[in-house]
Amino acid sequence: MFKKVISVILSVIIAASVLTIGVGAVSGDERGLNIRIVISKNANSLERAAAEFLRDTVRESTNIEYPIITDSEGKKGFEIAVGKTRRFDYDVSSFADGGYVIKSYDGGIAVVGAGNRGNIYGVCRLLKEFGGYRCFVAGDKLANGGDALNIPNDVDIEYTPYFEYTETDWRLSWCDSHIYSLSNGLSGGVYNRISEDLGGTVNYINSFAHTLTAGFCSKDKYFDSHPEYFALRDGKRIPTQLCLTNEYVYHIVLDEVLELLKNRHDPEAALQIISLTQADNQDYCQCENCKRLDEENESHAGTMISFVNRIAEQVALMDYDNVAIDTFAYQYTRKPPKNVKPLDNVIVRLCSIECCFTHTFDDPDCERNTTFMSDLYGWGKICDRVYVWDYANNYKYTVCIFPDFGVLQRNMQILCENNVKGVYVEGNYYLGKCDAEFGDLRSYLIASLLSDPYCDYDKAMREFCDFYYGAAGKEIVEFINKTSENAKKGHVRCFNSVDKTLHFSRKEVKECDELWENAKRNTAHDEVANEHVRRSEISWRVWKSSVRKGEFEFFGLFPERMRLYRDICDFGIEKFCEWDDLKMKLPLHLILSSPNEWKSDVKATSRDYGNLIDVCIRTYDTIRALVGRLFGKWVEPIV
User: Fold this and answer.
1) pTM of the complete model
2) Neighbour tally for 467: CB within 10 Å
3) Rounded to the nearest 5°, which phi and psi values hold at 591?
4) DSSP category for residue 499
5) Of the candidates 202, 269, 201, 197, the residue with the CA atom closest to the CA atom of residue 50
């Protein structure tokens, strides 16, 4: 609750005394204002970079440049002070890295940040709150929706981050998204690095997942000569996991960790992380020593935490005070151990891969989520640095709808309220090849929630949809709300079959279809928004085709499947799921199979059968039009 309170804007806005700073005119002076950015005469590089970012952002949007002066110069006009200055100073030493205050003072407004990222985050908040600046889509620039900064006379904002580490991978992995990360408060550096002069990121200094047998004590290097270093399964050593009670394995991994730190440690970083995480399989070691330790702890996390603690202890003894050792609570290690506790410099990353994502984590009637909550509580009792690896995607059928929008906010609040320190939300990191559904919307909402789990979620969704879908924003929001509510009738995992995702009746399908038709009609004269609408609609059409509803019922099934396939190809969608590409199909195969099966044979890099598919579709449309003329409408079968 404390975090919620301090995140609220504490501004007292007196309507009669609002100061409007013109940035849309040719110059500030023409409105009787001389706007200047003030930094300390002894400003550090981070304060200076934040001031320059403010200046450059406004200039790029408006062609007006605010000069940057130092606090050794006299006051003149309205000032925006960045960092600690003689104009305004504030003690932010108790704030976490990335925290800031934005406060009015006589003749201006000040942004004072904590740590490496506080000043730049504060500047971005100033631009957002009082200039309407947003970066909705990764890869875009920070731009505003108006021509003026509207700053009240009495601004009093205090913010401290809810999490020390925040990251998601939607689109960020394949475009320059540092502006997106800055403006939306993402601090993780796995998928996007913010330059050090802009505050940097919280970085894993090795690979951030599945590092044991890959990066540390590599199976390629050691298995042939020392199979005893690796897991014993059914009496046989296999290279897919390590034997964590083997003393040689400990010394090898320790030496490799220390060598990594020797080469890549940054003493100026707020936090650096080394990942010691199990490989992505169930092949934990069953040797006598590992088995005994796991049984004593009633969890396979017994061997993992014991092993990681030994490494972490040596790292701490060598005074790497800003380094944490990270490990998983994932699948077979998810249950907290009974007798061993992680050391203070150990991060336990709890993974929600088994959860249901149409019900909140704290839903008492959802068995999958109640067991997750039990583990979250358990780890919280023994570990002060719990991170969560969450999931926001259907990896089995990514091109279809993943109806998790109704739980995103509450789930993030639950993590915050259970003292989780860091969150990574894995999504459609291959969005460049599978861009259907609502990827950019989900990314923006996740980033907003990572920055403030108690933000106005509905407002954030509306703002994004109005920007991205234009005049169709209202229909898109209504459709998303319908799917989120409908999906609660069942349970949806992140590896889910299409037919178990939604449970719409024919009547409800028609209602949803009307929303999409209105959305396309409303954006008919907005080429960009219309393309966004039609691309997102692909996910709805895939679901209907898979369950044979809507236009995919009866007479329309076969030609509409071909039309869907053609549109998928035209939108450049090459992947259907995490591991399979879309494949080229003959028209007959499209007719006889649902989209679930469009993942074999020849890769769809070209539409070799495109002309034949088009002929089939045109023939169907001609017949449909002819029947319409004869009977006044398309004749639906009687059921």
Assistant:
1) 0.90
2) 19
3) -65, -40
4) G
5) 197
User: Do 108 and 87 form a contact (C-beta atoms < 8 A)?
Assistant: yes
Backbone φ and ψ for 573, nearest 5 degrees, come out as -80, 115
Sign, CA dihedral 263-265-267-268, equals positive
The gap from C-alpha 281 to its chain's centroid, in whole angstroms, comes to 24
Token pair 């875009």: residue = 140
Structure tokens at 79: 């000032």
With 50 as the cut, is the pLDDT of residue 27 above it?
Answer: no
β-strand 148-151 against 19-22: which pairing, if any? Answer: antiparallel
Q: How far apart are CA 33 and CA 21, in angstroms?
A: 8
Within 13 A of 30's CA, how many CA atoms are on the CB side? 7
Within 10 angstroms of residue 18's Cβ, the number of other Cβ atoms is: 12
What are the Cα distances from residue 502, in Å, to 79, 356, 556? 54, 14, 21
Per-residue pLDDT reduced to its tens digit, 370-429: 999 999 999 999 999 999 999 999 999 999 999 999 999 999 999 999 999 999 999 999
State CA 540 to chain mean position distance.
Answer: 22
Helix (H, G, I), strand (E, B) or coil at 454: coil
Angle between helix 506-522 and 527-547 (nearest 10): 160
Q: What is the DSSP string of 190-230?
A: SS-PPPGGGT--BEESS-SSS-BTTTBS-HHHHTTT-GGGE
Distance in angstroms (rounded) separating the CA atoms of residues 196 and 178:
11
- Return the structure tokens found at 82: 């960045």
The span from the CA of 128 to the CA of 122, in Å, is 10
- Give the separation between CA 486 and CA 505, rounded to whole angstroms: 10
> What are the φ/ψ torsions at residue 490 (nearest 5 degrees)?
-135, -165
Beta strands in 95-235 (DSSP E): 100-105, 108-113, 148-151, 156-159, 165-168, 203-204, 230-233
Spatial distance between the Cα atoms of 440 and 135, rounded to a whole number of angstroms: 11
- Both structure tokens of 322: 């800003």
pLDDT, residue 612, reads: 58
Query: How many C-beta neighbours within 10 Å does residue 74 have?
Result: 6
The DSSP output letter for 134 is B
403, amino acid identity: P
Q: Is the pLDDT of residue 627 over 70?
A: no
Record the tokens describing residue 444, joined without a space. Answer: 């923006």
